[in-house]
Write a structure and sequence with these properties.
By secondary structure, the chain is of the alpha+beta class. Strands 1, 2, 3, 4 and 5 form a 5-stranded antiparallel sheet that branches. It is globular. 24% of the residues are buried.
Length: 79
């Protein structure tokens, strides 16, 4: 599991997402994941396929997968 604590009470997790190719893709993925309960920030980078999520507690991977699917992309797993 690629999770580390950045600030007290927060967890940073990096996910790999396939199919992102532009800023619009980054925005779509970020927007869907940011709606999950407990998410503080999301940064998606199309060029690397990495999505960094800072949340109050570890997220359920299936919830993240559903959000990425809703945006039209595929969650590969944790980076």
């Amino acid at each position: 599991m690629t999770a580390q604590t950045d600030t007290p009470g927060s967890v940073t997790t990096v996910y790999k997402v396939s199919g992102m190719s532009c800023g619009h893709c980054e925005g779509a993925v970020s927007g869907e994941i940011s709606e999950l309960p407990g998410v503080g920030s999301v940064q998606a980078v199309a060029s690397t396929g990495e999505v960094t999520v800072v949340s109050a507690a570890p997220l359920h991977e299936e919830a993240v997968r559903a959000a990425v699917d809703e945006a039209g992309f595929e969650l590969v797993g944790k980076a």
